[in-house]
Protein 1
Amino acid sequence: MPSEYKLRTRWRAVTDRAVTGLAILATLLVVAPLVAIFAYLIYKGARSVNLAFFTQVPAPVGEPGGGMANAIVGSGVLLAVASAIGVPIGIGGGIYLAEFGRGTKLANAVRFTADVLNGVPSIVMGLAMYSLIVLPQRHFSALSGGVALGIMMIPTVCRTSEEMLLMVPLAVREAALGLGVANWRSVLSITVKTASPGIITGCMLAFARVAGETAPLIFTAFGNPYTSTKLSQPIEALPLQIYVYALSPYDDWHRLAWAGSLVLIVLIVLAVSLVRYVTSRGVLKGAS
Amino acid sequence: MGVGIEVRNLNAWYGSNHTLQDINLKIPANHATALIGPSGCGKSTFVRCLNRMHETNPIGRVTGTVLMGDLDIYKDANPVQIRRRVGMVFQRPNPFPTMSIYDNVAAGLKLNGYTNRRALDEIVERSLKNSALWDEVKDDLKKKSGASLSGGQQQRLCIARALAVDPEVLLMDEPASALDPVSTAKIEDLIFQLKSQYTIVIVTHNMQQAARVAEMTGFFLNGRMVEFDSTHKIFTNPSDKRTEDYITGRFG
């Protein structure tokens, strides 16, 4: 082998290792904050997570014990309302943008609006729902909080659904049309189904994002020291209660706030994993 | 049973690009007709006009008359009805990736609201037998995805899928160009068997393939049909100089 060749081969091996090393380093830097936050939450909050935390409502100031059952139930109700609004409207909008409205002025306007909506600060969303729902009804309610979160989900769900649908190859669409399947049917049964793993990921992203929102709930769901599932009543939410407890002057409440943060993150991870597990069952061997 | 197709003054455009110019021909029922010609000559556009797929492209436009039997497909019917009677097999195998082998074959019927289970089972089995795939997949019908098969098997799956809706015409746009020689031979055998029941139009780059499977052959060049005659005549004694130049490999 000529010496110049040897030198180049060696140089390639060196750059190969250097680049691999940098990629590994970058990966570690990405994962590090998440691991650090999670470890710190466990360190600070794990001791206060016990059965009472899940079954009892907050104890009055000065009394020991108490839990966040009201907030856990409340977050569940709020997120159910939010998903019931955000997921269907978002996916429907995404289908329109990708399949039926391609290139039309309306589609461009919708896409622009969704992007702007995505940039609206969450506190503004809370204020908007305060004046649109809370003021006319003259009371805070779970409904207004759920609607605020639901509207915040729409742009993420809509735009990821659009992108995922556009990734379905033309060949698959043509296969359906070539069989004499009507266009709307082909879109719903073939294109959406093929893109569904990506669409579900988009919904989960939006869900996880609003699950931790505090600001839109301050003027809408308001908070409630008792467990409630009524949409017309004020309702507690985990992020809201963490916010209040963390700002309080009491050590007890600080500990509960840490525990609440830990539980919130674990519940989000569980919800996302559950959806992934359920939707990945029944996937066929070799399906891509 | 297959049905003959008569094409009169067919013109097609992609935007301002006049891809097909004044095509006239009669495709006989229950025979295989091959369309040959260099890349970009309009063969694929032509077959896509026969099942009204050309117009699914936002910039595609068609004028002229296509008669399937007595039916004027651009006047008397909507595209969805036409595509149920004219099956299509594409250049690259395109099974539905999220569906099982069974569901791929049953897709055309199921998506049109056909639900009789026992009849579906029979149709799926018959279609897979007709496309010579049954023996290879009968044990994994509902377990494996259509996308898990090899390329040649996928293409036969796509043929089964097209046959399951019981079309009268089968359009094949270079069905073997992405396949190895063994799979190609299987597809050609298949065309041989299928043409007794269906009218087959096959686009191919491979002239030996045209000579092997088709009774009639059309030669396309630059958006026009130069010559349409029996395959034997086209390959032994073409009447147009350009056809002769093409099949003897002087261009294209």
Protein 2
Amino acid sequence: MDILNALVALSNFVLIPAIAYGSQLALGALGVTLIYGILRFSNFAHGDTMAFGAMIAVLVTWWLQSVGIGLGPLPTALLALPFGILGCMALVLVTDRMVYRFYREQKAKPVILVIVSMGVMFIMNGLVRFIIGPNDQNFADGTRFLISARDFKEMTGLEEGLAIKSTQALTVVVAVIAVALLFWFLNKTRTGKSMRAYSDNEDLALLSGINPERVVMYTWLIVAALATTAGVLYGLDKSFKPFVYFQLLLPIFASAIVGGLGSPLGAIAGGFVIAFSEVTVTYAWKKVLGYLAPAGMEPDGLVQLLSTDYKFAVSFVILLIVLLFKPTGLFKGKAV
Amino acid sequence: MKKLLTATAASALMASAAFAGGHAKEVKIGVILGFTGPIESLTPSMADGAELAMKEVSDSGLLLDGATVTSVRADSTCVDAAAATAAAERLITSDKVDGIMGADCSGVTGAILSNVAVPNGVVMISPSATSPALSTAEDNGLFFRTAPSDARQGVVMTEILMEEGINEVAVTYTNNDYGKGLADSFQQAFEAAGGKVTISAAHEDGKADYSAEVGALAAAGGQRLVVAGYVDQGGSGIVRSAIDSGAFDTFHFPDGMIGAKLEENFGSEIDGSTGQHPGTDSPGVAKYEEIVAGAFDATSPFTPESYDAAALILLAMQAANSKDSADYKEHIMHVANAPGEKIYPGELAKALQIIKDGGDVDYVGATAVELIGPGESAGNYRQIKLEGGKITTAKFR
């Protein structure tokens, strides 16, 4: 019984939140890694691209809710997601045409593109706040829980409750589908293959007749779709607030770099590594250990490695360790 | 030349002594508030409140056998201790005030107290400084306040929770001076009363996700979660996450968390939770608004406290039959507290007469003044309970 209680407490406060958060980070990191692999720069505007896509989805969700269209138990935001993706695609294509293409034609160094992307970040940041405002926006609807803590306790008779929010389950399901689609696209389709070829060796790809502008366009389209999906899932599960997406940039970059920049598989692994370390390092293990330890040996203190204030510091530290000892990341990406 | 100087100085001294003697019937009260600075929108009404009490006393003609009360305003700036000290210095040395109604913000109040009021031996009553640090400041019995110390809320919280039969709580606070100060004073009071605080953890405002914070709070456990945060900020995020993960069912909310937004965000999900915020059901408030009669905004924060501060100084002078700080400082606690006839706003003339006739008054005033400990307001709190998704008044304490 005690072992079950420990397991449930652990799932409730560590495993489930970390899996959901990891999926959101993985989707974000995939976008960063694709840009890095194909366009060859670190896109600092990624967090705000997510915010923009999510914002369109929020606005469309509100409109759908006001005319009474819904998905029953599922959040209406899922219906609005394609609109968000389209809006975000339009934004990134316009940005690419107006900003990045100029520097691409100049053959600007990656570091210049990084600074340019910071400028883009500030503009997108302002745009989102200008349209929807800087405050929290609530757009979640549908059933809130797959299983709530109280029901779980009644069902199993355990002391610990287990809550699975429907948005957490949804996050994982949607993330799996998105990743499967992406890998299928990259590995099986002609465009996907040309993208990988362009990423591996630009000159060789050009010689074999791949149109670089086309590859760039497809990359942006995929990145916009991934970013919007990540943004909407994060907003549904937590809350939509423009500034929060800006803050997400750090864990997302940490995930991409830990996994190996340019490696899609690495981005997913990195997302989960970062999410799990953030949650486990700041979790107070008192309760779990209390169940597992033999009678009389229960810990008195909180058994917390780091206060939760230092959550963001965890991604920093992991980032530093990886850069020091394995600069190419876990999955042999490109060195930063 | 030297002789001339001495002579001039001597005659000047004599002249000023004569001047003081001739005007023994004038009482000057310094009103030192931040007329410029971060709370400049509040201070005009506060000063008006204090001056209303002075006018009431002057008009009655009963203070110290017909003394008139005049107000001298000075700017505390609220934030600049040096400027506030200089302004207070001027009030005492050049305007020769007999008491100070002020200052407003805790920082400048402490500076004026230690640099000017104590060295010169002048009584000061602050209507709005709430820092717990002022309770223990060196004041030679000269400093009082009609606003409660933030430490007081911690004690009130402890009393409420103990009465509910709760002796083990987890505490989370918003990471700023307000949250930290309140959490610390609560923890101190709660542990002194025999309760146990399992964890006292900060949370940052404006984050999207508080599951890690709630995970730590849940691991520490407790019968109730005390959320010393803001309802529009991280406080609500913590509560939401705690309910979702089943970590806590009931909460205790200090003043920053109580508002319409709380009902709106959580409805009946937090039924059974408790809380408190400053508030009183004393008839003094209504009477105060009545005598203000729209002359200024009587509901603006700390104006009733300002009225009470000025009234207390004047009543204490009457009780001591002297306008000298050293004499009347002993009488302030006495006129403010029971026993005696209860005095509400607008009844200052009655109070002066009672004191003159040798009777006792218990000044209630606009804010139900009750001075405790080192001469600060006990504060009045409205204890609330959440029932059926609504904030309901349990009682006033």
